[in-house]
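User: Teach me something about this protein's shape.
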Amino acid sequence: MSKTLVVMIHGLTGGGGTWVNDENGASFSELLQADSKISDQIDVIEFDYFTKIVNLTQNVLGSSFVGLINKYTGSFFNKPKIRKNSSINSLTNSLATFLEVESANYDSIVFICHSMGGLIGKNFILNHLAEEYEDIQIPVIGYISLATPHRGSFPAVILGPINVNARELQPLNEDMTTLNDLWVESFDDLPKSYYVEALHDECVGKLSATPNTVKKFKSKTLQVSHSEICKPSSSKDLTYKVVSKYLEEILHTHRQKKLTQVEYESDVHSYDKEIFVIKMVLASVEERLIEDAKESFFHAELIMKSAKKNELEVFKELRSKIISLYRTYSSCKGVKSNSEVVKEIHSKIVELDKSSLDCLVEYLNFLHKKGILHQESNRLNLDVNWCDSVTIDSIENEVR
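Assistant: First, the predicted structure itself:
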């Protein structure tokens, strides 16, 4: 089974220690990898990059200074590797190069981001949606933001003169504002996204912890500081529970979406002895419409077998709407042929798929909704029936 690559991206001045609890050394990535509910579906990796408030040693001056000491004292001190703080755009390009290699054997990506790491993740996702990374063909299916300054951080104003990233993190910074505006505008195309804010955050204000105040950008609040939000002490820690729950939801939706791509094979799934097919045959419905009904039934059955309890409640409400639609348009029986009635109801379901039949379960499409109709027809009653001359007795005779 193909897995999802979970990529953890730290923030300003962060590194490997970002994700490690200061008191007991628990590693966030190791906790996720050990979680039996998701461990067989994911691998976790950390994207690291250089970031310091002030770089006093890993620069040309520092390297030259060590070289002079070695030359005139006969010492053999290692020269520091030259590093510099890079812009968010540059770090995004570095992340893309990293993922070209690391994501090669996976079918999807999820980002878990802390602080400025959330801006790098956002930038990558928007570029990926714009098809800027032709060597990364797998989708980003989830984005979890932990105390990310989506609309800037006021403490960054103080550090701006000495740090390129701090300048980018200032409120009203042009690049920051453009990135966030584009993210908000792209809402319908974004992967499943979640935002978590730290109640005692000394760096990121409440309004900045989400991209926008409208309800579709929902957030959770944890009673932790800016640095504590990414350092759960164990799997019982509330921070861990919130993030792992979000990750479970992302992975579940991804699995369900993959099921929608499973092809119906008529020679494997004939359904000829199913009640919904018998009703259509007895009503002399056209063969192509019967095949369409079989395919729809197949997809509805497949998706519902692995649906969660809350999703089944949505299906129940959707079923009521579809039955109501059936009752409205089946009243034409006797005026139109049985095939015409079936075709009209199928067409109406497709037409209303994204309006009155739209629902919160994002992986459901018109095929599943047609399938729900035929699931209802697959009962030994006449609630969904295509011809008044078809009776319970005639159906039972065919079932035997």
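Now, about its shape. DSSP finds 14 helices and six strands in the chain. The longest strand covers residues 192-200. If you'd like, I can walk through any region in more detail.
User: That's plenty for now, thanks!
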